[in-house]
Amino acid sequence: MPDGGTLAIVTSRADVDEADAIRLGGNKGCYVSIRVSDTGVGIPESVLGKIFEPFFTTKPLGQGTGLGLSMVYGFVQQSSGFVSVTSEEGAGTSITLYIPLAQTSAVEKASTVAPVDFTCGKGQTILVVEDDDSVRLLLAAALGDFGYQVHLAEDGQQALSLLDGLHALDLLITDVGLPGLNGRQLAEIIQQKRPDLPVLFISGYAENAAIRSEFLGVGMSMMTKPFTLEHLADTVSAAFEAQAAPGAV
Predict the structure, then answer these.
(1) Rounded to the nearest 5°, which phi and psi values hold at 238?
(2) Per-residue pLDDT at 94
(3) What is the sign of the dihedral through the CA atoms of 148, 150, 155 and 156?
(4) What is the pLDDT along the chain (249 residues), one digit of tens a residue?
């Protein structure tokens, strides 16, 4: 809202019947609805159908990742919900999230988990690119404990600067939503210099099969936050195993 306006956030219970489900593009049932509305400039019709696409943004280069609404959409879909959007140019926009209402109380059950051997690394070199300081340091500590050599960068430009000084590099781990160069753009640039380098993307938005099939290229895989140390260890090991498999590019 460049000229100011009103932003309203309303939560309520929504009982969606078959008629509403067809109109809203969801399934009938009981939901918690979260509606965010503004009285801003609205969204043009030509743009409205693209707002949930990853990396789509109307902002100038470097001022937006184009991941905000795709993260929201992914989270809601992962929760078996749906999203409804209405907008009118010059009048504002309303986005409503419908998240299924829990039918029973969640009960935590204690379980005994066998210790996991995390010493899966063999000294391979990994470049981690992550703009969140806490996540970057956590990855560095965990991967180091797993037995890998780790180099850190907080954005794409720093990663490219480090790249020239790395004689050996076995895996790139990069966050998708980096400032400036996003993770996908960074991976393409690095793979031009090191074509056989496997890439593991870390994403904060929920996985979607259609998006993944278009987003991931040869030698690329994706892991969604939050993740456990066991999942991190398994995913990194799988990336190396796929690279070493017969016929791998």
Answers:
(1) -65, -35
(2) 94
(3) negative
(4) 778 889 999 999 999 999 988 888 888 999 999 999 999 989 988 888 888 776 667 666 555 555 677 778 877 888 889 999 999 998 999 999 999 988 765 555 445 545 555 678 889 999 999 998 888 988 999 999 899 999 999 999 999 999 988 989 999 999 988 888 888 899 999 999 999 899 999 986 544 433 455 667 788 888 887 788 888 999 999 999 887 765 554
Is residue 151 situated within a structural domain?
A: yes
Structure token digits, residue 83: 């999203």
Domain total of the chain? 2
- Residue ending a domain, among 35, 67, 100, is 100
Q: Is the pTM of this model over 0.90?
A: no
Answer yes or no: is 112 within a domain. Answer: no
User: Is 119 contained in some domain?
Assistant: no
Q: Residue 218 is part of a domain; what is its CATH number?
A: 3.40.50.2300
Beta strands in the chain (DSSP E): 7-16, 29-38, 82-88, 92-100, 125-129, 149-153, 171-175, 199-203, 220-224
Q: What are phi and psi of 188, to 5 degrees?
A: -65, -40
Cα atoms in the Cβ-side hemisphere of radius 13 Å centred on 87: 18
Residue 139 forms part of a structural domain: yes
Q: Convert 116-146 to b/e letters by CB count within 10 Å (16 or more is b).
A: eebebbeebebbbbbbeeebbeebbebbeeb
- What is the span of the domain harbouring residue 57? 7-100
Residue type, 225: K
CA distance 5 to 41: 10
Q: Is the peptide bond before 226 cis (omega within 30 degrees of 0)?
A: yes
